[in-house]
Each structure stands twice: as structure tokens, then as C-alpha cells.
Amino acid sequence: MRMSMLNKTRACTVQRHENLFAGLTVRNIGEATILAARFSIAAKKVVVVVVVVVVVVVVVVVVVIVVEVVVVVVVVVVVVVVVVVVVVEVVIVVIAVAVAVAAAVVVVAYIIY
């Protein structure tokens, strides 16, 4: 009994498939195959384009990050150079004041003695 129901179900399914494909001619099947191949190729092209776009975006982001890091390094170097220049100028001023004081002491000592 059960096997008979299963066979009937299979027979109905096969009949439905036969009805579905009965209207297809050889030409229609060929066109359907060509269309399926075209859609497959188009899908592959879309995937390739998406992958290329993602790779380009990632590369651009990495380049932007590298450029930002380089800019930060350059700014730090410039700040260090400015600090060094200011320190050197302060040292020069201190030396100049010391020389001026020493000269004044020598002049005063010369005048007094």
C-alpha cells in the first residue's frame, strides 16, 4: 500500500516535469542554455568587479593610513628640530650674556686698577 502511494507520487512528479518540458523545442533548450551561460559569465564578471572594487578600496585605505603616519612622523621631526633650534638659541644668548658680563668685569677692573 505504502509503495503504491510512493510510486503514484513519483509518477505525478515525473508527469509534471514532462508537462513542464513538453513545450520546449530543441531551439528553446539551446537558447536557454546560452542564456544560462551568459548569466553565469555575467555573474562571474560581477563577482570579479566586486572583488576588484574591494581590493582597490582596501589599497586606498592602506595608502591613506601610511600617508597619515608619514605626516605625523614629519610633524614630530619638525617639532624636534624647532625645539633643538630654540635650545641652541638660548645657549647662544646665555653665552653672549656671559661674554658681555665678563667684558664688563674686565672693563670695570681695568678702570678701577
Describe this entry's structure for a reader.
By secondary structure, the protein is mainly alpha-helical. It has one domain. The chain has two helices and no strands. The longest helix has about 90 residues. It is rod-shaped, with a radius of gyration of 45 Å. It starts with a helix and ends with a helix. About 0% of the residues are buried. The model has no long low-confidence stretch (mean pLDDT about 80). Keywords: Membrane, Transmembrane, Transmembrane helix.
- Count of DSSP helices? 2
Query: Per DSSP, what share of the residues sits in E-state strands of 2 or more residues?
Result: under 5%
Radius of gyration equals 45 Å
Gap between N and C termini, in Å?
Answer: 142 Å
Shape: rod-shaped
Annotation keywords:
2 helices; mainly alpha; single chain; 113 residues; 96% helix
Concise structural overview:
96% of the residues lie in helices and 0% in strands.
Helix/strand layout:
Layout: H1 2-22, H2 26-112
